[in-house]
Each structure stands twice: as structure tokens, then as C-alpha cells.
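Researcher: Please generate the 3D structure of the following complex. Treat every line as part of one assembly.
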Amino acid sequence: MLRDRSPVHGLERRRLGAPDVLAQSVSGAAPSAAMAATPVIVAASAGGATVWSFVVATVLALLIASCIARFTRRMAAPGGLYPLTAKGLAPGAALACGIALLTGYGLLAAAALAGVASYADALLSRVGATDGRWVPAAVAVLVGGGVAVLALHGVRLAARVVLLVESVAITVLVVVFALLLAGGPIPGPGSGEPAAGPGGVVAGVLPALAAFIGFEIATTLGAEARRPFRTVPRAVGITAAVAGVLYLFAAHVQVVGFADTPGGLAGQSEPVLVLATTRGWSWVPVVLDLGLIMSFFACALATTSALVRVLFSLSRDGVAPAALGRTHRRFHTPHVALAVAVPVVVAALVVPVAAGLPLGGVLVTLLTLATSGFLVAYLLVCVAAPVFLRRIGELTWPAVAASAVIAPILVAALVAFLVSRPVSALVLAGVGVLGVGWWAGLRTRRPAVLAGIGVYDETVAADVAGRRVASDTGGSRVGDATGSGAATDLEGHRDAVGRRTPGRGSGR
Amino acid sequence: MTGPAPLSGRQPKAVRSALAVLEEVVAAGPGVTAKEISAALKLPQATTYRLLNLLVAEEYLVRLPDLKGFELGRRAARLALPVVTTPPTAARAVVDHLRGLVRWGVHLASFRTGQVVLVDPDPDHPPSDGALLARYPQVSALGRLLLAEQPDWHALVREERSFTEHTIPAAGLGAVLEQVTGLGLARQCGELRPDRGCLAVPIRAPGDRSLVAGLAIAGPPHRIAEPNTEIVALLEDHAERLAPLLA
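Model: Done. Output below.
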């Protein structure tokens, strides 16, 4: 009943330390970028209640993290949220979650590339070295290639790069915002933010929640993390908390900055730049652009790693082509999935930009579409959590309560989101139709494969006490199988060589 | 936060309960569920689940593939003192025979406990401290035999330590272990003690070829570094003879 090797063999199992896993999740949420961009979007809906909208959104993100942790304390899966959903809900729901994740990670990666291209474009335009179309497109292609190379060369390298880049970006943003806060409100005739009631808070929660998407990326590193049942839930929870604090800080700085300006923060379009230039700090925009380029780059790398692991997992489940489930012999990364996914991600950005659409608009559209994918995935995993706990006989009332609170809110958020953005609704409906087709095809032709969806890093024989060195029970446990337990192709090869030994020994 | 509350020395009850949970998993056998443990120990369910998740996170316990049942994890094996069994007289006679043929120290180690345990050290050429060998398998030839057999050898290398200037750092160990598997022979030259080197060959069960023990010969490092074709042949010959006696 215990397998000799994990069904997700080929990845570098149990090697990634806690800081690396946390960095991936933080980069997925890309808090630095959201600190600069989101408060003004929230203020447009929430007005004076901007900060409260972020408080509510942070609580919601923590609730989602708690639902995800019900699973990640008990299982580790490179497929992220969809194998978790599979343990609670029907296979169709798990497949839907998988499609939502592919949509979410794919478009978020494209949006992050768009972010890099957009801020690089802003930097270059200061020296007049860009045309706003082909130059950013070329930047996106180059950065996409760089992301692919880093993601290929082992999960640890990618994680280290992400950790370094994101730490620098967050530090830069926090320092700039602290300076802006110390400066106090910029002078104006007074009045400031229009008052907003509870309705404003609710309206602001949705864009504030969108600033958190990607915070669950650590779940895709389950198989590769050391002590995953501790590391992964913590990484997701800490990311939600840290991002929440950063957003509250950023929102507070910007609300205070425009306290004496008619219309307040909601009346601005580029609040951080206005705050800086009013004080004559011309260096701030340059530093911000650099910080945001780094943050978006880390986000692109983290989401690409997550995207290819979801593809890898779907392939190991048998629902996606088998080639996508292959891993690189030396780097232990899903290299085929990378080769397929990265060009698609880059094209999702470069094609519209090359066609002449404005870069900023493309970035916003990609983010919006990605958000709808994430909302669907969060909803499914939150509904699945208590069902899963009931199945394994470990249901507690806080688990039920968390899902009972968060699920209706996510449904409402999703509906509000799609109603207000008909283009997103259309695209999502299109993806939904394709997904139903995929599901129907699997159901008629390969029902057993569909029923077994949700591959995860199971406990293998080598993980259990007393089975590390095969005992003298003879044929039931084969020594050669133990030798190839980590089961990379490499060790299979090693084994074949190892078998020469007895022959040579007895020949003497 | 989302993680379970950490245990501290100030929570004797929690520590006691955690140990009781471990004990119950051993007593009830593989596949026992959280509900059963909670009932058997009369612990509140939420407490039991939290303790179980903590023990699973620390890898003292593992969840079986149905995610309901529990079994002792690999790390729990370290809680028990390795049981050292004296090898049978016939096996010791084979080792003594080899000692009569060479001038260097000949040692026999068992890997049954998942550690290097010297079961027949050479009385005339005392080997390095047994605790040291068990603790740093990466620097001894016998330990490398054990590591090369692991699906993930990192799990057994707990701390890196440079004993001499020749000690190979952990980063280079992967290649060394590949070589050990390829040749069926492990070697270290002055990596643990500057004046000592060691050659070791695996002893495998005749039935399933699983690694049960290792036979080593220890001598001056510059001599150990030589090909030593004759000595290796002797070692392999005696290892072959020991296999049916030890497995």
C-alpha cells in the first residue's frame, strides 16, 4: 500500500528552506507593486474608508489562508490548490480549480511581465529611449526568457533570486513611504476625503482583496519544501499578514498625504508621484520605478514556477499530456511545461502590445482576468476544506465557521467582480466552456483518470520508521527499489550500475 | 497565526500529551486514525488534531496515503536507541580470517538501524569513536555506503563538520556518493583523522540485495588512496561470504 516513490517524483523533494518558500508567496502577492497602485483604486470606491477596506480584505485573506492551511498541514502537493480541492469536492470541481489556477497564474505571470515592461518603459522614457510599443515588447520577451532560464535551473536558485529581489523592493517601498508619511499632508485648501459609510468599505474590499492574489503560491512548493506541513501553511499565513500590514501602511500614507486636498486620494491618478514631486523629491519616481521593476520581476518568476508545477501536476494526473510531467534530469524542474508555458505567457502580453494597445491598459486587463481566476480557486478550496476534514474524521467547528463566513463573501465578490467587468466575464465564460468540454471529454473517454485527479506527494516507504533499510522480510521489499526511492532518472541509472557489483565480486 | 501553537517547556501537559500520542500510534499500529487516538487517550479532539498535525509537521509521524491513518515517521526512529546485535560466531570468524590476511584494521558495521553501528571493531586497531561515525556518516567510508543507498542522503547528514583539511564539503558529496554506488566501494583518505584512511564495501542480503552491513579496512591515508586491487578483492570476497551470515 505504501509506494516506493512519490507520484510526483522527479521534483527535488524536501529541499527548500522556510525563507525561500515564504519569499515565493510574498513575491506572488507582489506587495510592493500593490502598495503603490492599489490604494488609489480602492479610494475610488471607498473614499474616506480606504484603510477600513484594507482591514476587511486582510481579514478575508487570513480566513482564506486558514482554509488552505487545513489541507497544507496534512498534505503537500505541487499542483497548488486543485489537488487540495480534489480531496474535498468532486473531481469536476478539482478540474475547475486547476483551470482557474492555470488562468490565474498564467495571466498573473503575464501581468507581472507587463509590469516589468511598463516600469522599464517609464524609466527609458526619461531619457527618451523608447517608443512605448516595440521597446517594452522586446523587454517583455527578454525578461520572459530570463524568467524561464532561472525557473529551469532548479527551484532553489529561483527561490533565492526571488527572496533577494523582493526584499530589496519591499525595503525601497517602505523607506519611500515612511519619508512621505514624515512629510505630512501636502498643503491644500482643506476638506480632504469625502466621508464614506459602510457601503464604501464594502465596495473597496474587492479591489483591496485583488491586491492579495498570488499569496498562496507557497502551496505549489509543497513537495519541494523541507518540513512542508509546517513551512507551507506558515508561509501562506505570514504572507497574508505581511501584505495586509504593508497595504494598511501604504493606504494610510496616501490618505494622510491628500488629507488637505479637495477630493482626497480618490481624486488622484498617480498619488505617490504627486506626493513626491510636490515636495520636490525628483529622485523618488526613479527609485520607485526600479523597485517596482524588481517586484514585478520576482512576481513573474514566482508565478511562472507555480504555473509550471500546476501543469506538471495535471500531467501526472493524466489529464494533461504526459510530456508536461517530465522533469529535467539535473535541475529537477518541469522543463517541458516551462518550454510550453513561458511562450504562451509572453505572447499573452506581447501580442496585444505589439498590436498597438497601450501597455497600462493591457496590464490592468491581465490583472483583472487573473483575479477572477484566483477568486474561483479560493472559493473552491474554501468550500472543500470542511468536507475534506469530515472525510478524514478531523472536522472541528472553527473550520466550518471559517468556510461558512468566507464562501458567501467570495461568491458575492466574484459576482460583483464579473458584473462590473463584462469583458472579464466573457473571457471567463469562454474558459469555462473550454473547461466543461475538457471535463466532458475526460468523463466519457477516461472516467477513471478523472476520478483519481489530485495527485500529491504521498508518504512513501522511505518516510516511515523502520523501513529505511529493507528488513529481512525478503521479497516484500526489494532493496533495489529502496535505492531508487527518490526516483529521479539519475538514480535509476545509478542502480543499474550498482548491480554490477555482485557479479564482479563473485567472479574472483 | 495559522500555525499550531508552538510547544514550550512551560507547557508540560502539552509535552506529555504529545508523547502519549506518539506512544498510542506505536501501540495501535499503522493506520490508526485521529478519532481513535483521541478516544483512546481521552484527549479533546481539537487538541489531538493539533498535536497530530504538529507531530506530522516535525516528521515524527506521517499520514498514510488515505490521509486518515498515521504511522511512525522516519524521524521517530531516532528516539529509540539502535539495538546492536552481536554478529554470529560464524560471521566473526570470517572477519577474523580477513584480519589474519592483512596488516591493517578490519571493522564490521551494521546498517540495520539506519545508522553506522560498529558490531565487530578490530581490537588491535581501535577505530574512531562509534558515536562520531554514527553522527557524521558523510566523512567515513562505512557511512558513505549507507548514504549512497538512501533515496535522499541529505536527510541523514545532519550537520556538516570539517574534521581535517581533507574533509570533503557537503556540496561535493553528491558526486562522491554517485561514485560509491558506481564502484560498489567507498573510500576516505584522512577526512576524519589525518593519519587514517578507510576502504569499505557493502554487504548485501543474498535475496533482495538490500544493504545490511559494511566491511571496512583502515590504514594510512596515502596507502588507502592507492588502487589496492588485491585488498579490494579480499574485501569483496569476504563481504560475499558474510552476506548469508548477516542477512
